[in-house]
Write a structure and sequence with these properties.
The protein is of the alpha/beta class. The protein is built from 11 helices and 27 strands. The protein folds into 2 domains: 120 residues, Golgi alpha-mannosidase II (Immunoglobulin-like, Sandwich), CATH 2.60.40.1180; 366 residues, Glycosidases (TIM Barrel). The radius of gyration is 23 Å and the shape is globular. It binds alpha-L-arabinofuranose. Alpha-L-arabinofuranose binds next to loops.
Length: 504
Amino acid sequence: MKKFAKMVIDKDFRIARIDKRIYGSFIEHLGRAVYTGIYQPGHETADENGFRRDVMELVKELDVPIIRYPGGNFVSSYRWEDGVGPVHERPRRLELAWRSLETNEVGINEFAGWAKAVNSEVMMAVNLGTRGVADACHLLEYCNHPSGTRYSDLRISHGVRDPLGIRTWCLGNEMDGPWQLGAKTAEEYGRLAAETAKAMKLIDPDIELVSCGSSGTGMPTFPEWEAATLTHTYDYVDYVSLHQYFGNPDNDTADFLALTMEMDHFIRTVIATCDFVKAKKRGKKDINLSFDEWNVWFHSTEGDNEEMKNHPWQQAPALLEDVYTFEDALLVGLMLITLIKHSDRVRMACLAQLVNVIAPIMTLKDGGAWKQTIYYPFLHASRYGRGVALQPVIASSKHDTKNFSDVADVESVAVWNDEADELTIFAVNRDLSEDIILNCDIGSFSGYRVLSHQVLASDDLKAVNGPAKENVAPEEQKGTTVEGRDLTVCLRKASWNVIRLGKR
Ligand code: AHR
């Protein structure tokens, strides 16, 4: 069958105004994310606080509105008190989640200062693995209470007069996972999370809380976990978390690129479960979705397991340093399109992670910082995906893969930035051998013309970037036209496309 794609984009067919926090990310005390990643006193670019300016510039370029911290699995045995106060008095600890040595040189205050410098908010996770209600309350009081109490005065004594004003809090991390320190059954977690949430909202009613969802669709308790835990936490929380990582261990690219169908199904199932609990509770509010861990992750896993087993207790070991290929960037683009398509309910999301650990930004300890292939789709979505997500009315030819049927050759979504009066179309051609023409009716955007068409394409699906050479980077494509209401775009085989239109 001849390959085709057609689409109608209309400014009145809206999904939602996108919450910019869907372009969030994540820094965990894991591997070299913090130490020799964002923080490296003595590095030639380090600022007066020891943070690498070269990394800060790249994070600022990505314009990441919110960054989850300090874990991840790390948080489930973290004692936040270890990371505050005079640095030379902070304990060195055995860090059990990643079997590493944690020096605690960076803690909450240092991280909050760094986040502010890169124009991001902090999404803070509390330890509900080895700790509970009281410690979560103390941490919140330390961070957000103005003064005159034990923990707020402790913060002030540490030189931080103004409250950190952290608005978004995660109630633990992946508490359903047997690997998690202090893993819990749904009943155990639901009760603990509800009681913690109740207490935290008494301290600061303005915070927003995220209840832990399943660690992934593959968990045997999914989605019963969501139904059972939200039944306890519904009254106190605002979001439920979703985590999903994909890989291509069998080297089947067509099947790999179809995986966002699974992500789409995951999101729909969680929405249905949230709405089921709402109905059961006779509730008024919706529980929204915080997709606070998502990415490709598989390249490094085998080596990391060996490393943690055979060489534990290293300081900042090189763990989870996946080097991303061009096809990984395509899947990241498809995952971003999926998030935007669900932006009415997915209000926050975090690319996991940001620096060195399954990350778009990498550093050399004794050198510079460089951009992975996945940097680019994330940059494009974060920069141009702000405004109103429009309902894509789209038809495309389809194909089957090993595990999926009726996979659309072309996936696409459009975002209208009504303030800048710009329309951006994100599109992926999943077909590995043929270019496809996308015909788009943009009749409601009269007078718009093509401002740019950026494309990420490569003849080598396994091409990677490195510190010395960038093999995968966007380029400008010519020949994209608007005539009357018809936009015509050639989507090159296996490509990520960003078509920007406006009146300028
Ligand atoms: O992002 C890496 C790890 O993946 C996180 O620590 C954990 O939450 C998830 O399993």
